[in-house]
Amino acid sequence: MLIIRNLRAGIGDKEILKGIDLEVKPGEVHAIMGPNGSGKSTLAQVLAGRDFYEVTGGEVIYEGHDLLELDPEERAAEGIFLAFQYPVEIPGVSNMYFLRAALNNIRKRSGVEELDAVDFLELVKERMTALDMPEGLLNRAVNVGFSGGEKKRNEIFQLAVLEPKLAILDETDSGLDIDALRLVANGVNSLRSPKRSFVVVTHYQRLLNYIVPDFVHVMSNGRIVKSGDKTLALELEQKGYAELDELAVSELVR
Amino acid sequence: MIELREDQDVYLTHFADRGQRTAAEPEWLRDLRRSAMDRFAALGFPTTHNEDWKYTNVSGIARLAARPAPAATLTRKELERLPFANLGCGVRLVFLNGRFSPKLSAAKRLPAGVNAASLASVLENGSAPLENHLARYAGFEENAFVALNTALFEDGALIEIAKGTVVEEPIHLVFVSVGGAEPWVAHPRNLILAGRGSQAAVIETYVASGEGVHFTNAVTEIVAAEGAVTEHYKLQHEGAQAFHVGTIQGLQERSSSLTSHNVGFGAALARNDVNVVLDGEGAECMLNGLYATTGKQHVDNHSTLDHAKPNCNSRELYKGILDGQGTGVFNGKIIVHKDAQKTNALQSNKNLLLSADAMINTKPQLEIFADDVRCTHGATVGQLDKDALFYMQTRGIPREAARDLLTYAFAGELFDRMNWAPARERLEQELYRKLSQGRKP
Question: Which of A41, B66, B352, B391 is the most buried (most CB within 10 A)?
Answer without folding.
Answer: B391
